[in-house]
Amino acid sequence: MASRSRGSAPRWTAVFLWWAALCCLLLPAAAVKHENFKRCDQSGFCKRNRQFADDVSASSSWTSPYALDPASIAFKNSQLSGTVLKTLGEGEHKARLPLTVTFLESGVARVTLDEEKRQKGDIVLRHDSKARKERYNEAGKWALVGGLKVSEGAALSDQVEQGYTKVFYGEGGKHQAIIRHQPFGIDFQRDGETHIRFNERGLLNLEHWRQKAEKPKEENKEGEEEKKEEEKQEAQTGEDESTWWDESFGGNTDSKPRGPEAVALDITFPGYEHVFGIPEHATKLSLKTTRGGDGNYNEPYRLYNADVFEYEMDSPMTLYGAIPFMQAHRKGSTVGVFWLNAAETWVDVVKAKSTANPLALGVKSHTDTQTHWISESGLLDVFVFLGPNPQDLTRQYGELTGYTAMPQSFAIAYHQCRWNYVTDEDVKDVDRKFDKFKIPYDVIWLDIEYTHEKKYFTWDPLTFVNPTKMHKHLEKRDRKLVAIIDPHIKNTDNYPVIDELKKKDLAVKNKDGNQYEGWCWPGSSMWIDCFNPAAITWWKGLFKYDSFKGTAPNTFIWNDMNEPSVFNGPETTMPKDNLHFGNWEHRDVHNINGMTFHNATYEALIERKKGEHRRPFVLTRAFYSGSQRVGAMWTGDNLAEWSHLEASIPMVLNQGISGFPFAGADVGGFFGNPSKELLTRWYQAGIYYPFFRGHAHIDTRRREPYLPGSPYTELITQALRLRYQLLPAWYTAFHEAHTIGAPIIRPNFYVHPEDERGFAVDDQLYIGSTGLLAKPATKEGADSVSVYIADDQPYYDYFDYTTYQGAGHHTVPAPLEKIPLLMQGGHIIPRRDRPRRSSGLMKYDPFTLVVVLDSSNSANGTLYLDDGETFDYQQGAYIHRRFAFDGKRNILTSTNLASGSRTAKLDAFLKSMTKVRVEKVIIVGAPKEWKGKTEVVVMEEGAKESARRKKTAFEYYEADGKKAAWAVVRDPKVGIGKGWKIDFA
Fold first, then answer.
1. Is 652 helix (H, G, I), strand (E, B) or coil?
2. Which of 433, 553, 663, 874 to pair with 407, CA 20 to 30 A apart?
3. C-alpha span between 386 and 400 (Å, rounded)
4. What residues act catalytically?
């Protein structure tokens, strides 16, 4: 669901606001309102620091005022500590900034810089504020879950260098941190080469506390005296102080009780032309520069979770979530940084190209990517990753912030949603029609209209008369229901939820310490403060079956509007001087806010009923680093336009490499009515989103897959069945994400990190480690697509085995009835071929293995399988097999990858899967030598002596033009969880 077109609404009468909301329902939607969201020059701290960067760049004599005091340096237990001194002006005192550089066992380094005065509480807050005096230092409490073990091998260099301190760390001491004392800066090296530089350009800026000289009100004639004083101070310091003490935007004023407190740092990636990450933005995978120029941006990338209505394409504008993790990539190396800060953040990206000096032999031209990170408040807290490859970065980042939750199997199938299914009978009717047209789906969703007067944890008694009966109807087909629950609670009479929220004092507070009231869907609302442990405990109780009556074990939850969206708030969100638990200001925690709510809902679903141990499913719109631990996200309020379909691929790819791979976009576009061609193409692309949901706005025409008519319904059904056929491969990819942090869908640079021509390719994707290469058609009227192949392996069309080989671009037919999908040689792809109504009905279906031979006639693949529902896999109840085809011996084998000892849970699971078998093996690119062969030998472990070695029928099909030869073994009668081999010799 989305917020409709709206501006900043003053607190007039409830009648007026409800009338305005009604009008919004009746009027057509408008495009994003830029005037509702700040540009950098309208955000005081961003403007100051960007101007500071311009001034430094223009100066030929600039020297950073930050210096590390050599006498303060100490090194103990792989942590360097010291004090950075900030010179505040000629003849003035120095601000003391405690520094720690921690070297972790994983090879990651962590740099933190604080401010002693605020740290000690030695400051005075303005306006008698109740806010905390410290810089916010609890972001790690929410974002970090591991990976913080300190290295045992980090050591100071024996070589003493004047003005520098050098630390060796990482495996074998291959990493070095060279810490410059004056001006303060750090170079991070791997194998003697510098890959990341802090403060190379001197843009480090930690705005120290200073006290504002307050004028008595009687002396302040309409602000004239204060204005003159500020102008006098500005003339003395040369700094623009106009937004130090308060700041207004859109009719709202931010009181800033702590004054200016921004933190900023320039981080350079020398020799790196491509940087990726820092979602969420509707832009390319390889980030553009932000300082102007042809085709580039003039604004920095903004990270400030916001409810952006009908967002535009190709923009650095903020969206719903924020992950301040950036990777830089070049041939032979991937490095990155994680900027652990939850406040509003802006990131400038500049690519500085150097030309080769013809007199300097061996010196080539190169590009340095220079970034400038600016946050409004909090600590400077940065993790540094030195790779050397993309897999290292996603794994190490996952060790810190957590890996993707292992979802229930239904969650990776197809979800059918719109705002709104209007009655419980409507839900059942949609369900029946999917069956009537033999279209698979697993989940149907309810938006806010199911509630009684937009009160969460209720059902509308006129339209959802019998939700229990509705759930039972879905359960018969092994289907689920997802209902929306947002963080704003309607402030009204005769509503126990709001009564308890107020009584228990669990809501977010305003700057005066009173419970904050704002406006959202229900009108007057209050927001649960999930930074408060007591609020989480209370929230969990609301989801129990006897509390949220009408729900069932097949009910799951959607958290929307959790940026948070506040219709009458600044930038459609909460005032920054609001207060959360612990008296932290909202400005400090804004980007984490949505994750705390998401976490609370996840925990609530786990505890719905004692003894019920099903994995939760909770979708979120707002997110931060760590949100991947508890659910899925989607890219928000997109449009039914070709450009939005095209942009969804790099957006979802970027989520994957940034540690939150369970991502998708609204199929068909949320706003507007897609043409039948666009709707069909979007389903053909959506089958490659890890989170796959069709969704639509309340004002759009109904567009369930059975409605477009022939041939579109059949083509959409074909796409959906392909997704279901490949669910074993998808589930295995999710397991990789859950255990090693690998993206579920992968861009070219991640799979082929040495292929320089493909680093910026972001309109195609690989599915996990399967070798499946998809290139969705995203242009109107397209009848082909250009697929980029990075290597010399053969690639085969998934459906007819047409061969494509050779690095470069290949034209692949893609008329509307054709889904372009290739298989890279060298892989074995598990799938289930029997069409079913839902994934739950496939649980005991047999498997097909597609063995795609590479140029050396070899192939490998894996399959992960568990009950798809409970947490029993944590006690070993799973099947994990490795399939390998040995091209020299012509033998296909299945071996066990599961580790650990036998458990009762494992034995029970294996028993339940005893009859699940491999029903077919297809070999693509089959050798010519097999022609004429009619049988193969199959051997299975544990079989009776008489059945241990058996012959099975074999069919060989010759190559036909560009179509490869292939072969098939039908029903080899081997168990999917058993060890076995098939001898083709």
1. helix
2. 433
3. 15
4. 560, 563, 637
Q: How many CB atoms lie within 10 A of CB 296?
A: 14
Give CB contacts under 8 A, 24+ apart, made by 955-961.
956/926, 956/930, 956/931, 956/932, 957/926, 958/931
Element (H, E) at 681: helix 676-686
For a pLDDT cut of 90, what percent of the chain falls above it? 88
CA geometry: angle 164, 165, 166, nearest 5 deg: 115
Residue 114 has pLDDT above 60, yes or no: yes
Q: Which of 211, 234, 254, 242 is nearest to 343 (CA)?
A: 254
CA distance 650 to 657: 11
Pairing verdict, β 301-303 and 803-804: unpaired
Q: Using CA atoms in the order 240, 243, 249, 252, what is the torsion angle rounded to 10 degrees?
A: -160
CB 38 within 8 A of CB 345: no
> Which residues have CB under 8 Å from 17's CB, separation 6+?
9, 519, 523
Position 34, amino acid: H
3-state secondary structure 47-94: HHHHHHHHHHHHCCCCCCCEEECHHHCEEECCEEEEEEEEECCCCCCE
Instruction: Say which residue the tokens 């529902």 belong to.
Output: 869
How far is residue 618's CA from residue 602's CA, in Å, rounded to a whole number?
A: 6
Among candidate residues 212, 239, 293, 294, the one with its CA nearest the CA of residue 44: 239
How far is Cα 594 from Cα 320, in angstroms, rounded to an integer? 9
Rg, C-alpha atoms of the chain: 29
CB within 8 Å of 300: residues ≥ 6 apart: 40, 46, 50, 290, 316, 346, 347, 348, 349, 372, 374
DSSP string for 424-468: HHHHHHHHHHHHHTT----EEEE-GGGSBTTBTT---TTT-S-HH
Q: Which of 751, 684, 753, 695 is nearest to 721 (CA)?
A: 684
pLDDT at 22: 40
pLDDT at residue 174 is higher than 70: yes
Range of lowest pLDDT (92-96, 391-395, 851-855, 917-921): 92-96
> What's 802's DSSP letter?
B
In this structure, what are the phi and psi dihedrals at residue 14, rounded to the nearest 5 degrees? -60, -35
Per the document, the length of the chain is 985
pLDDT score recorded for residue 532: 98
Q: Quickly tell me which residue has 């791997």 as its tokens.
A: 190
Q: Which of 164-178, 238-252, 955-969 has the lowest mean pLDDT?
A: 238-252
**For residue 764, what is the DSSP state?**
-
The answer to whether the Cα torsion of 887, 893, 894, 897 is positive or negative is: negative
Tokens at residue 846, please? 């047999």
Amino acid at 630: V
| 264 backbone dihedrals φ, ψ, rounded to 5° | -145, 150
Name residue 666's beta-bridge partners. 693
Contacting residues for 962 by C-beta, under 8 A, at least 6 apart: 802, 803
Note the pLDDT tens digit of each residue in 735-752: 999 999 999 999 999 999
Q: What does residue 508 show for φ and ψ, rounded to 5 degrees?
A: -60, 145
Q: Which residues pair with 951 in a beta bridge?
A: 937
All domains in the chain, ordered by first residue: 66-207+262-401 (2.60.40.1760), 764-983 (2.60.40.1180)
* Dihedral of the alpha carbons of 219, 222, 228, 230, in degrees to the nearest 10: 100
Query: Strand runs (DSSP E) across 450-600, as ranges?
Result: 480-484, 488-490, 518-520, 523-527, 555-559, 579-580, 584-585
Q: What is the per-residue pLDDT for 32?
A: 82
Tokens in use for 406? 């292992």
Range 892-901 contact pairs with CB under 8 angstroms and sequence separation of 24 or more = 892/849, 892/851, 892/921, 892/981, 892/982, 892/984, 893/979, 893/980, 893/981, 893/982, 894/974, 894/978, 894/979, 894/980, 894/981, 895/979, 896/979, 897/862, 900/876, 901/876
